[in-house]
Write a structure and sequence with these properties.
4-stranded antiparallel beta sheet, Aspartate Aminotransferase, domain 1, Aspartate Aminotransferase, domain 2, 7-stranded mixed beta sheet, 403 residues, globular, alpha/beta, binds D-malate
């Protein structure tokens, strides 16, 4: 009997579990501390009223003879898929077939699970810093090799994202099979232009690589950055896209997302759409009817207004945080097209040291940049998802300490 030993190679706990534990330990030692949490990107605004009403109606329907439903369609309810096609894609000039959209319980799960349909020997490229799920799940699958003392995996290609390249990765020198890209980016908040993303699409098509494009934060785009990779010509033959209702409609606790796998996307003449459909039908039982009705309500006129208001709320928080940090003399990125504010620690302080300092002196919890990979060392991430008054209070505490 043997376990999957790859699990022994990844850090013992997931980044945000680790942070949660540290905060809990601090709170236990300092019960009087009024901690403001701007660490994990979790929503604090209540669900949009349109979604709540849709859930209430759907729950009532499920309690009737005629309205009861058992297992949901494994790839998603047609009523939701049609709304996604119309509002998220056709409205941006992208035509998708219904069977190219797969409803799921989260972009986190999908970006991790997608590895199931690719060979273990594929070479994977990730940005550095990066959302830890991409690297960790590939490590668990045995695709990342061995962790090095520098925090880098021996078989992963790390694409440095630094202040010098505006946190936009350069095309790799060595050809990867799979390329994870996330824009607007978690953790740096950087967004990518159509021209820059087109370079990646051309690269992938020329080299036979597949881009795994995480667009979970597209709703925060303010300028003309692409919301979907399929706005770029040629992307349907090289990219899978992940989207989520978590960071748009506040579904972090409700759970609903979707993944697009175009039928034109093939590897060794095999349709990835068919493989993903097979994988989902076997390992996933769909998203509840009540939840998908709530997601559908996001596209109603009231839903769209309410979601836009929540996003505006976070944008204001982001501007408050970025402004305050700049006033306090920090170098700051993100915040513009993203709910994340990425800052350099003072005096090249280590990320975890800054985490401890901020927690202890300001009772503000953020996320150490090094938790996102070696390239994040010396950086720190704050989120704009907090309650506005608490967010302002957090920035005032920070300013008091560092100004
Ligand atoms: C984050 O804080 O990076 C996100 O909340 C993580 C996630 O969406 O899973």
């Amino acid at each position: 009997m043997k376990i999957n030993e790859n699990f022994l190679k990844v850090p013992e706990s997931y980044l945000f579990t680790d942070i949660g534990r540290r905060i809990a330990a601090y709170k236990q030692a300092h019960p009087e501390a009024d901690i403001i949490r701007l660490g994990i990107g979790d929503i604090t605004r209540p669900l949009p009223a349109a979604c709540v009403e849709a859930m209430r109606l759907a729950a009532a329907e499920m309690g009737t003879e005629q309205g009861f439903r058992g297992y949901p369609p494994e790839y998603g309810q047609p009523f939701l898929i049609e709304k996604i096609r119309e509002f998220d894609y056709a409205a941006r000039g992208v035509q998708l077939d219904s069977d190219e959209i797969f409803i799921s319980d989260g972009a986190k799960s999908d970006t991790g699970n997608i590895g199931d349909i690719f060979d273990r020997d594929n070479i994977v490229a990730v940005c550095d810093p990066v959302y830890p799920v991409y690297a960790d799940t590939n490590a668990m699958a045995g695709r990342a090799g061995e962790p090095g003392p520098d925090g880098k995996w021996s078989r992963l290609i790390f694409l440095p994202c630094t202040a010098d390249n505006d946190f936009l990765p350069e095309l790799p020198e060595k050809r990867p099979d799979l390329i994870y890209l996330c824009f607007p980016n978690n953790p740096t908040g950087a967004s990518i232009s159509k021209a820059k993303l087109a370079e990646w699409v051309d690269y992938a098509n020329t080299n036979g690589s597949v881009i795994l494009f995480d667009a979970a934060y597209e709703a925060y785009i303010t300028g003309d950055a692409p919301h979907s990779i399929y706005e770029i010509e040629g992307a349907k033959t090289c990219a899978v896209e992940f989207r989520s209702f978590s960071k748009t409609a506040g579904f972090t606790g409700v759970r609903c997302a979707y993944t697009v796998v175009p039928k034109q996307l093939t590897v060794q003449s095999v349709s990835l759409n068919k493989l993903w459909a097979r994988r989902q039908a076997t390992k996933f039982n769909g998203v509840s009817y009540v939840t998908q009705r709530a997601a559908e309500a996001v596209y109603s006129p009231e839903g769209r207004r309410q979601v836009a208001a929540n996003i505006e709320y976070c944008r204001r928080n982001a501007a408050v945080i970025a402004g305050a940090l700049r006033e306090a003399g920090f170098r700051v990125w993100g915040a513009q097209d993203s709910p994340y504010i990425w800052m350099q620690t003072p005096g090249a302080m280590k990320s975890w040291d800054f985490f401890d300092l901020l927690l202890d002196k300001a009772h503000v919890a953020g996320t150490p940049g090094c938790g996102f990979g070696p390239g994040g060392e010396g950086y720190f991430r704050l989120t704009a998802f907090g309650e506005a008054g608490r967010t302002l209070e957090a920035t005032e505490r920070i300013k008091r300490i560092f100004s």
